[in-house]
Write a structure and sequence with these properties.
ubl conjugation, elongated, transmembrane helix, Methylamine Dehydrogenase, Chain H, phosphoprotein, alpha+beta, repeat, about 725 residues, 4-stranded antiparallel sheet, WD40_repeat_dom_sf, 14 helices
């Protein structure tokens, strides 16, 4: 006979599991879903009751036929007997099974669940308060240990307190386990099912775990936390300046630096018109560039920047046309030049004057921006080099034109910032080209070139490097005055950089010096207080460009003497310069072979045709067959000549002396004395000049030398020089 006890036990288990899981929820969850949960539980209970009734009837009918029963049926007596059920009689045709299902008070179950949740929340809060109190005591104990030496009594007291806390924690755990057992509703579950809620209870515990009991572990963790907190609080410790490498670009100023987003390649440009490519993974300890080119002919390179994907480089030079080249230096596009005879610069297709700088859009691929001496800031697309995308025209407060000296995008690409020669900083919305969104007219001194503006990584702060030897920090949410200002930072280049550290806690810029008057420095300012916290002496030249890569954690610096330096730390930096310093310099392979160029002209005339090239051995064999080339030359003739050959002159000592005497015709006499030697004879016996003047001018008269003053007096007035 199949009994319905199995069904009832199953019902009780399901209800108990549901109630236990429901007790872990928060009170407001039950208030909100109470009605829905009660209706579902009632529906489940009624359905299971109907299933049990059906199974009971099928079990009874298993022993009976249509005429009578073939087996004895157990009688239900005592408290288990129940009265007739009219609903069952109507549905099934008989009065009942003899047992009544157990009923549950759902409101009481929900109330008990609410109390359990409140009690557990209270215990969790007490545990957190106790943990905070223990942490405070631990901090006070550490401070007292720093002030006074630790005594044996304090150690004993600490051990006693630890043992007492261990006892109290064990007693609390036992009490909590007993209370959790008392809170269970319904009949007990099997062992396997009873173990699962305990695990869930452990997983549902809120808050951090209690600290370990061992004193050594506590001290080690405290030391580690202190070290980490010190490093976090002191951003100077994160500056990677323990090692450096020097890349020789040339002899003139390195005016442009660019590093791709992955940090694999560095590109440098200078006043010598050259752009050089450096591959950290391919370089060795010789630090030589793998490519050098002049993309803009005889124009100084002012700005180099990789795109956000790293496949293109924006080249801004002193010309009016910016260029885009790929990673290997091949030209991708060149911006068109505008018509310089049009007054309104918005109607031209491109820039009409010298460029200053450029920048890629941080989000949109293929879009970049340039600013020029034609008083415009223009945006471009790589796919459309024949015309700009949009034009921004900076204006003074009086509405006049003003030249932008630098420009940049915000980190999200929605804002465009430009600094102008009148000292103002203007910021536009990228989609609104007419009026600036922010305009501060006296950010720097008028008439100076603001060399750099850059946004922080969080996008809320703007740093500007002015030509008035200042560095200023601005909050774009309150753009009416600078947050901080630092002076005493000399600059002599219109492209002196400033940048933020990867963690946004430091601001870096360079200083300029006269030749032989000191060394250029890389200066670090703390963003929160704007104090000068660190300096690095770079070289005995100005520091023009600086770049702090966020992935490599390395600092690149361009100087005024043609050097590009890379600063890194083996422990804090990644890849970059660390890849090439470990490679030894390759030995040069010298080929000492001399070859003669041979021109093949098969259709040339015989008189101009060159002989066919032969090997050395064959050429020697051919020469031996030639009687002229194989003839032994005759030795020189010694003594008198013979056989038609003249003997050598001066072969003997006597002939040599005679030869030298005969050849020596040097006149060592004084020429004046040699002439005056014949003066008396010419006077006594004149022959050439005196006989010709003997009758007409017997007395010799010589010309008188007139001075220049007398000659000037004798000249007419119209010939005299007018002073």
């Amino acid at each position: 006979m199949v009994s319905c006890d199995v069904e009832f036990e199953t019902i009780f288990r399901i209800l108990r599991i549901k109630c236990h899981l429901a007790s872990k929820r928060v009170f407001f969850f039950f208030v909100f879903f109470g009605c829905i949960g009660s209706s579902l539980l009632c529906a489940d209970f009624f359905w299971l009751q109907r299933v049990g009734t059906t199974l009971r009837y099928s079990a009874q009918s298993a022993h009976c036929s249509g005429f009578s029963c073939f087996g004895a049926r157990a009688l239900v007596t005592g408290s288990d007997a129940s009265g007739p059920d009219p609903q069952l009689a109507v549905t099934m045709g008989f009065t009942g099974f003899g047992k009544k299902a157990r009923t549950f008070d759902l409101e009481a179950m929900f109330e008990q669940t609410r109390r359990t949740a409140v009690e557990r929340s209270r215990k969790t809060l007490e545990a957190r308060e106790k943990e905070e109190e223990m942490n405070r005591e631990k901090e006070l104990r550490r401070q007292s240990e720093d002030l006074e030496p630790t005594s044996s009594g304090s150690n004993v007291a600490r051990d006693c307190s630890k043992s007492s806390s261990r006892d109290t924690s064990s007693s609390e755990s036992e009490a909590s386990s007993e209370s959790s057992d008392d809170e269970l509703i319904g009949p007990p579950l099997p062992l396997k099912m009873a173990e699962e809620p305990v695990n869930h209870m452990e997983e549902d515990i809120l808050g951090p775990l209690p600290p370990p009991l061992g004193e050594d572990v506590e001290e080690e963790e405290d030391d580690d936390d202190d070290d980490d907190s010190e490093e976090e609080e002191n951003p100077v410790q994160k500056i990677p300046d323990s090692h450096e490498i020097t890349l020789k670009h040339g002899t003139k100023t390195v005016s442009a630096l660019g590093l791709d987003p992955s940090g694999a390649r560095l590109v440098t440009g200078g006043y010598d018109y050259d752009v050089k490519f450096w591959d950290f993974a391919g370089m060795d300890a010789s630090f030589k560039a793998f490519r050098s080119l002049q993309p803009c002919e005889c124009h100084q390179i002012k700005s180099l920047q990789y795109s956000n994907t790293g496949d293109m480089i924006l080249v801004v030079s002193g010309s009016s046309q910016a260029k885009v080249i790929d990673r290997d230096g091949f030209e991708v596009m060149e911006c068109i030049k505008g018509d310089q005879y049009i007054v309104d610069m918005a109607n031209t297709k491109g820039h009409t004057a010298m460029l200053h700088t450029g920048s890629w859009h941080p989000k949109i691929k293929g879009e970049f921006m340039t600013c020029s001496n034609d008083a415009t800031v223009r945006t471009w697309e790589v796919e459309n080099p024949k015309k700009q995308k949009s034009v921004f025209k900076p204006r003074t407060m009086q509405g006049k034109k003003v030249i932008p000296t630098t420009c940049t995008y915000s980190r999200d690409g929605n804002l465009i910032a430009a600094a102008c020669q009148n000292g103002s900083i203007q910021i536009w919305d990228r989609n609104l080209t007419v009026h600036p969104k922010f305009h501060y007219k006296q950010a720097h001194d008028p008439g100076t070139d603001t060399s750099c503006v850059t946004f922080s990584y969080d996008g809320n702060v703007l740093a500007s490097r002015g030509g008035d030897d200042t560095l200023k920090l601005w909050d774009i949410r309150q753009f009416n005055k600078p947050l901080f200002s630092a002076s005493g930072l000399p600059t002599m280049f219109p492209m002196t950089d400033c940048c933020f550290s990867p963690d946004d806690k430091l601001i870096v810029t360079g200083t300029s010096v006269q030749r032989g008057c000191g060394s250029g420095k890389l200066v670090f300012f703390e963003r929160r207080t704007f104090q000068r916290v660190y300096e690095i002496d770079i070289t005995d030249a100005s520091v023009v460009r600086c770049l702090w890569h966020p992935k490599l954690n390395q600092i690149m610096v361009g100087t005024g003497n043609g050097l590009a330096k890379v600063y890194y730390d083996p422990n804090k930096s990644q890849r970059g310069a660390k890849l090439c310093v470990v490679k030894t310099q390759r030995k040069a392979k010298q080929a000492e072979t001399l070859t003669q160029d041979y021109i093949i002209t098969p259709h040339a005339l015989p008189m101009f045709r060159e002989p066919r090239q032969r090997s050395t051995r064959k050429q020697l064999e051919k020469d031996r067959l030639d009687p002229l080339k194989s003839h032994k030359p005759e030795p020189p003739v010694a003594g008198p000549g013979r056989g038609g050959r003249v003997g050598t002159h001066g072969g003997t000592l006597s002939s040599y002396i005679v030869k030298n005497i005969a050849l020596d015709k040097t006149d060592d006499s004084n020429p004046r004395e040699a002439i005056l030697r014949h003066a008396k004879a010419a006077e006594d016996n004149p022959y050439w000049v005196s006989p010709a003047y003997s009758k007409t001018q017997p007395k010799t008269m010589f010309a008188q030398v007139e001075s220049d003053d007398e000659e000037a007096k004798n000249e007419p007035e119209w010939k005299k020089r007018k002073i």
